[in-house]
Amino acid sequence: MITSCRWFRSARPRTTMTRVCNQKSHKGNWGGGETLAAHSLNPMRKAHSAPRCHAKAKTTGNRCKSPAKRGWHVCRMHGAGGGAPTGPGNGAWVHGDRSLEAEQNRRNLMALVKLVSDCANELHQTRARLTARPLGKTVLAKTPNGTHRS
């Protein structure tokens, strides 16, 4: 039970109850008689503590104060979740030869071609090793005129 916290009416029009607390045992480090919005009653607490947009103004150098969209570093006004649709839904779609799916198919095909080429080279090297003449032995063959050649 909290004994040193007391409630009073706030002068601000939107907040009806405010708490003054001298204990540091609450969630967070409140103390020293700071006036706090009622942390358990304030429905906007989550919205106020949301991460802020990282966009910065060129003229003033100040950051945007809007909350960032979930999963993005910027707010909706600075491009979060924006952009044209991908695929045939895009107005600039022509034929799809450079689509993500076509590019992935091309990459898969080239990987398969490289694998087959490597296997063929390995087979060629193995065949060359097996049919090579052993060193130190000379094999003589007769020519049609009766001489031997190596």
Strand content: 5-15%
Strand order of the largest sheet: 1-2-3
Average pLDDT rating: 77
Largest beta-sheet characterization: 3 strands, antiparallel
Unreliable stretches (pLDDT < 50, length at least 5) are 26-34
Compressed to H and E, one letter per element, the order equals: EEEHHEE
Principal-axes shape call: elongated
Helix content: 10-25%
Structural class: alpha+beta
- The value of Rg in angstroms is 39 Å
Number of strands: 5
Number of helices: 2
Terminal Cα separation, in Å? 106 Å
Describe this structure in words.
There is one protein chain. Among the domains are: 1-42, no CATH class; 45-77, no CATH class. 24% of the residues lie in helices and 10% in strands. It contains two helices and five strands, in the order E-E-E-H-H-E-E. It has helices at residues 45-48, 100-131; strands at 6-9, 17-20, 35-37, 141-142, 148-149. Strand 4 and strand 5 (148-149) form a beta hairpin. The longest helix is centred in the last third of the chain and has 32 residues, at 100-131.
How would you summarize the topology of this molecule?
Blueprint: E1 6-9, E2 17-20, E3 35-37, H1 45-48, H2 100-131, E4 141-142, E5 148-149
Antiparallel strand pairs: 1-2, 2-3, 4-5
